[in-house]
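Quick check before the chapter quiz. The format below is the same one you will see on the exam, so make sure you can read both the input and the output lines.
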Amino acid sequence: MVGIMRMSEYEWRLLVLCVFWWAAAVSDLRSKMIPIYLPVFFFAAAVVTNVCLPTSIDPKQLWTGAVPGGLLLLLSFVLKGKIGEGDGICLLAGGIWTGISYILIILEGALVLVSLTGMILIAARRGKADERIPFLPFLAGSASMIFLRELAG
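Here is the expected output.
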């Protein structure tokens, strides 16, 4: 219990992000859809928290964290749903919550994990060209690894 009380602000933010993303990832894995209320609620909570509560994190760092998620959301519209809108909204909310530096590290890890999974599915001849792989579980897994690394020191 004492260890939890000594967590830094970034560690707390990563923990909350992991809990939110894993809750949404369960739905993404089951139905390949994310209920819209989850990312919208988390987005609103991130904005309100960043505006109303004092933080030791540079505000520009937090608000520029929305850029990767915004670009993924834009890409979802351009590609007409080949990339899920829910993934973009979740990444946008996560970026505002953690800031640009953490969200880019998390996104990089998730892209590596999903690429490896895709290659394994293709090698096992189980993957189809048009098969959709839920992306949010990879984001949640990457965020969890970053959180555990930060927690370990």
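If your answer matched, good. The longest helix spans residues 100-123.
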